[in-house]
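Exercise 3.2. Students should predict the tertiary structure of the chain below and write it as structure tokens, then compare their answer with the key that follows.

Predict this chain's 3D structure.
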Amino acid sequence: MIETTRCRIMRTAFKDIRGINVLYNDANVWAYLGGKPNLARKIRGLISRILPGNNCLYWEVRSKDTNRFLGSMSLTPHHDGMYTEISYTFLSSIWGKGYATEAVGALVKYAFDVLGHEKLIAETQSANTASCAILRKLGFYEEQRLVRFGAEQIIWVIDRQGEDLNDSST
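Answer key:
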């Protein structure tokens, strides 16, 4: 388990299905992820989180105060096959409150300090300005822009020596 000031970050377990399902049904979340997923995509997503493949790690983020499900994060192989990608989705009802910045910052630190990664990738639509701001605030830098999934994506990078996560709790 990883803890921050306001969050408890735990590896995904079967008990998390209800929260993940709420996340999959949050239309605002999927606006930058190719649209609301159909039932088959939801089922594949749930299974991959409960029974992850090689080099795939999934976490659920909960409020320390209320134990309320806030979102999901992962470390999985990136499309390039060379690096690990950090991904995150949080319920739209908590956007703008700093939870994502806090939790993602803690997972980046964990990936470097505990798992020994030297470099992490994040990929987000350029139109998702809030996600871009989170990554920038955590010390990620833009490496590349490309079109994938029918939209312009930005490949963000953070290197172990470039990490600057002191602000991650705001």
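Discussion points: Strands lie at 2-3, 7-11, 57-63, 69-77, 84-90, 119-125, 141-148, 151-159. The CA atoms of residues 26 and 91 lie 7 Å apart.
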